[in-house]
Design brief:
elongated, four-stranded parallel sheet, alpha/beta
């Protein structure tokens, strides 16, 4: 379902109303039968929130690896509110965070490792969403 609103003559897709934003629409294609999903995330990303919320709803475990900060980022706190296991990595350049996530999967036998959503399948899902918007508007947006 898409929510469209008009603001100052501009039609706006309100994916900001979705938990985790646009990336939340990808979760049904990503989350399957595995029990745990691991994601190495920049703290400011919305994918971690979408994953955490969806896993909570689906009865799965979300483990989010991110850089350790003096004060937890609001997105990290939101993931915690959705029951995610947060593992903060000191000196957390994304390459280091990803390495720790891979090590965790090897050590624990975590069944799924996710690094981003840049796949052909997900691009098709987003493309189909655009087609839905075009059908709703009865035209292509400018």
């Amino acid at each position: 379902m898409v929510t469209l609103e008009k603001h100052n003559g501009i039609i706006v897709l309100r994916d900001d109303l979705l938990i985790g934003g646009t990336k939340s629409i990808l979760m049904p294609s990503i989350i399957g039968d595995n029990t745990e999903y691991v994601y190495a995330s920049p703290v400011y990303g919305g994918f971690q929130i979408a994953l955490s919320a969806y896993c909570q709803k689906a009865g799965k475990k979300a483990t989010i690896f991110c850089a350790k900060r003096k004060l937890k980022h609001p997105n990290t706190l939101e993931c915690l509110n959705y029951g995610a296991n947060i593992i903060e990595v000191p000196y957390g350049y994304l390459s280091v965070v990803e390495k720790r996530a891979r090590d965790y999967c090897q050590e624990t036998g975590a069944e799924k490792l996710i690094f981003g959503a840049d796949t052909i399948e997900n691009k098709i899902i987003i493309g189909n969403r655009m087609r839905e918007i075009i059908r709703t508007l009865k035209r292509e947006p400018k």
